[in-house]
Design goal:
Elements lengths: L7 E5 L11 H9 L2 E4 L2 H10 L6 E3 L5 H13 L4 E4 L12 H9 L3 E5 L4 H9 L6 E6 L4 H11 L5 E6 L4 H12 L4 E6 L7 E6 H10 L8 E5 L5 H17 L4 H12 L3 H4 L2
Parallel strand pairs: 1-4, 1-5, 2-3, 2-4, 6-7
Antiparallel strand pairs: 7-10, 8-9, 8-10
Helix pairs in contact: 3-4, 6-7, 7-8, 9-10
The structure holds S-adenosylmethionine.
Length: 274
């Protein structure tokens, strides 16, 4: 096992459900460092107690990170070793920590990862969708209008898409995905990974929406949504170009509407307005 190096910030992944998924290096490091910066100290304390770790916790969440990062970097510069954890999974992945890591690196502090669970990667590893290239989109905007706009922008994306979603928004988001990507696009809902009620459903979007609507259990717990990339991105770009052209055409001369729609969507201007 590695000796802890003074003045180092360890970025430590913690379990996303099953406590057995903590690594041996994580346990040893969390025990040895001077402090652990945690997103929610009340949430992390039970895990640390379970592991027999009594290291002092410091709160580092999205509301205090900008202010707290400076003091922690100072302590690292004075030679203390510290660790960063989040409530679950890998810090910085839809979780706080980016400012602390950036500030530490800026100050010349050694920052080293202790890799482990991440819901996006765990879901990808069992989804059965192409995994050679993928896009992590994190959480979609919570407002329906902004969410639909973001999904429309992603309709032509050829790589597998990975989203995090809150259970109460799941059905609405799946419906919007069906509209943006079409009934037939392959999708996977990975729920409660590593936990007792883990399920991984794969189906075309139209069927997946129906299965989730029919089974309220599928609308509970934590989930990752994955959608296959567009197999024909050129056609999707043309369709998006046509949609935008029709919209702009109500306000602008056809040639100008076509130029703008083509520039924005990547569709061919000639196809829109020959
Ligand atoms: N940093 C974490 C990681 O590495 O995955 C993600 C934190 S983000 C605030 C929490 C989101 O991750 C949840 O809303 C859910 O979308 C996803 N997630 C976390 N744990 C999960 C699990 N056990 N099963 C499915 N999704 C999970």
């Amino acid at each position: 096992m590695d000796p802890q190096i003074p003045g180092t910030l360890y970025v430590v992944a913690t379990p996303i459900g099953n406590r057995g998924d903590i690594t041996l290096r994580a346990i040893e490091t969390l025990r040895a460092v001077a402090w652990i910066a945690a997103e929610d100290t009340r949430h992390s304390r039970p895990l640390l107690t379970h592991l027999g770790i009594a290291t002092p916790l410091v709160a580092l969440h999205e509301h205090n990170e900008a202010a707290a990062a400076g003091g922690l970097v100072e302590r690292l510069c004075q030679g203390e070793a510290g660790a960063l954890i989040s409530d679950a999974g890998t810090p910085l992945v839809s979780d706080p920590g980016y400012r602390l890591v950036a500030a530490a690196r800026e100050a010349g502090v050694r920052v080293t990862p202790l890799p482990g669970p991440c819901a996006a990667i765990a879901a990808l590893s069992v989804a059965g969708l192409p995994s050679d290239r993928f896009v992590f989109e994190g959480f979609l905007p919570s407002k329906p209008g902004a969410r639909r706009a973001r999904l429309a922008e992603l309709a032509a994306e050829p790589r597998t898409l990975i989203f995090y979603e809150a259970p109460h928004r799941l059905l609405g988001t799946l419906g919007d995905m069906r509209t943006a990507f079409g009934d037939a696009r392959a999708a996977v809902l990975a729920r409660e990974l590593t936990k007792h009620f883990e399920t991984v459903l794969d189906a075309p979007l139209a069927e997946l929406v129906q299965r989730v609507a029919d089974d309220s259990d599928q609308q509970r717990g934590e989930c990752v949504l994955l959608v296959a990339g567009n197999a024909d991105p050129a056609a999707a770009r043309e369709a998006e170009g046509r949609r935008l052209y029709d919209l702009l055409r109500t306000e602008l001369p056809p040639s100008r509407a076509a130029r703008l729609a083509a520039r924005y969507t990547g569709a061919s201007r000639k196809t829109l307005y020959g």
